Amino acid sequence: MTVQDKIPVTILTGFLGAGKTSAIRHLLETANGKRLALIINEFGDLGVDGEIVKGCGIEGCADEDVLELANGCICCTVADNFLPTIETILARPDAPDHIIIETSGLALPKPLIKAFNWPEVRNRVTVDGVVAVVDGPAVADGLFAMDPSAVDAQQQNDVSLDHESPLEELLEEQLGSADLVLLNKMDMVAPDAVRGVTEDIKSSVRAGVKLLNSEHGRIDAAILLGLNAAAEGDLASRYSHHDGADHDHDHDDFTSFAVETGAFASPEALTERLVTLVKEHDLLRVKGFAAIEGKQMRLVVQGVGGRFSTYFDRPWNVSERPSSRMVFIGLAGLDEIAIRLGFAPH
Fold it and tell me: Residue 327 belongs to what domain range?
């Protein structure tokens, strides 16, 4: 079977909060009748990203076309979770035109690409492309150290400094496997910093990989789909820290937990509370849904570092009890008790 006869798969990778789910929503809006199946993998107990996509209200976005792999890293559970999910999609009488996989922000793309060489699926699907979504403001703020020589110089002055933090290694893994890079939220990057962000990222991708700027993940499906990379047959060119070794991707560097509490007086009051928690506990990512007093709509909350965005997406369902539910993600050692107490409405 040729590549043209296989169902194409796009892997959307990127660190926590980079904008992968926003990009998927825009893909759905610009699919032009193409039927997409979505596999959404999240890190955390609350399926926020899957809920956002299911509640998008976009024509052609049916709930049965969205499959969630929650609370487990897709690159670490290929045999147990990912392959059965792909096989379920392929067994449908009405097969999709294209499959989109949104990995968790902590997933390594290369082990997932390798899985497409498994006998069960290799003759039926192909990796059309790996799209890495990068949080432009986070790079501009120095969250990731993209210059290895600078890190080396710093390490010589401080022998206790690790060469790479978990965040740096994750970003390098994602960029090293990318066929296309989406520099997202670039409207939030100062004009004099745009060039530096672009050059930092360009230094970490393979030759010929294009970088595209975006706002809110708005890139047309015609650009992101149809890359024809057949990435499963091009593994050697895709850099990984784990090349030549068994896949050993320890998530113990990170921790996450979900907290549920009551309604907040306003979106502003909620955001102020969350910003305080981020500053006090060095949180990497906060996402979830909130109830606001006097409002019948569910508030979606997305936060990266100290930057938060909120919007009302839909009315609360009759079967739902309005409440505020957040997933907090950070490096290991978070004070969960203090965060739970600090999040509760006062």
Answer: 252-343
Q: Are 232 and 117 in contact (CB under 8 A)?
A: yes
In tens, the pLDDT along 131-158 reads 999 988 888 887 764 443 443 444 444 4
**For residue 227, what are the CA distances in angstroms to 86, 210, 282, 292, 326?**
20, 11, 38, 43, 36
| pTM check: above 0.90 | no
Structure tokens at 146: 């993209």
Please tell me whether residues 179 and 259 are part of one structural domain: no
* Domain membership flag for residue 48: yes
**315 in the same domain as 213:** no
- Domain shared by 171 and 53, yes or no: yes
**Helices (H) then strands (E): counts for the chain:** 11, 12
- Is residue 242, in this structure, part of any structural domain at all? no
**Which residue bears the tokens 């004099």?**
192
Q: Give the start-end residues of each E strand in the chain.
A: 7-13, 36-42, 66-70, 98-102, 125-135, 180-184, 210-213, 254-261, 285-290, 297-304, 307-315, 324-331
Dist CA 111 CA 77 (whole Å): 10
Q: Which of 184, 204, 237 is the last residue of a domain?
A: 237
Q: What is the rounded distance in angstroms from the CA atom of residue 154 to the CA atom of residue 267?
A: 41
Which helix (H) or strand (E) segment holds residue 223: the answer is helix 221-224
Spatial separation of the C-alpha atoms in residues 158 and 37, rounded to whole Å: 48
- Residue 321's contacts (CB-CB under 8 Å, 6 or more residues apart) are none
CATH number assigned to the domain comprising residue 302: 3.30.1220.10
Query: How far lies 40's CA from each of 20, 101, 208, 254, 265, in Å?
Result: 10, 6, 28, 19, 32
Do residues 51 and 19 touch, judged by C-beta distance below 8 A? Answer: no
In this structure, the answer to whether residues 61 and 172 fall within a common structural domain is: yes
Residues 6+ away with beta carbon under 8 Å from 69: 39, 40, 41, 42, 77, 81, 82, 85
3-state helix, strand, coil in the chain (%, to 5): 35, 25, 40
At 230-262, the pLDDT tens digits run: 999 988 888 777 665 554 545 456 677 889 999
